[in-house]
Amino acid sequence: MYSQQDSFLAYIVEIRRNWKAFLYYFPTAFLYCLYNNLSYTNLANFDPTTYFLLLQLRVGVTGVVFQILFKQRLSSHQWFSLVLLMIGCMIKEINLNTFTSNAPWRFELSTGIILILLQVCCSSSAGVYNEYLLKRQTQIPLLFQNSCLYVDSVICNILFLTFQGNISTGLDLNALRTILFTPIYLFVVLNNAAIGIVTSFFLSHLNSILKTFASALELLFTAVLCYLIFGIPIYINTIISIFVVSFAIWLYSKQPVDNRKAFQVEEVQEEEREKFIREV
Question: Cα separation of 215 and 86, whole Å?
Answer without folding.
Answer: 11
